[in-house]
Amino acid sequence: MQHVIHVLLTGGIGSRLWPLSRQSRPKQYLQLFSDHSLFELAIQRNKAFSKGLVVVGNQQNTNLSEASLEKLKVLEYTNIVESTPRNTAPAIAFAAFAVAPESVLLITPADHIIKAGENYKESVERAITLAQEGSIVTFGITPTKPETGFGYIEHSGEEVLSFREKPNADNATKFLEAGNFLWNSGMFCVKASVYLEELEKFAPEVYKMSKEAWEISKNGNLDLQASLKIPSKSIDYAVMEHSDKIKVVKSLFDWSDMGSFEALYDHLKENGHPVDKAGNMVIGNDKYTAFVGLENSILVCTPDANLVLTTEASQKVKDVYQVLEDISSPLIK
Question: Mind listing the pLDDT tens digit for each residue in 37-52?
Answer without folding.
Answer: 999 999 999 999 999 9
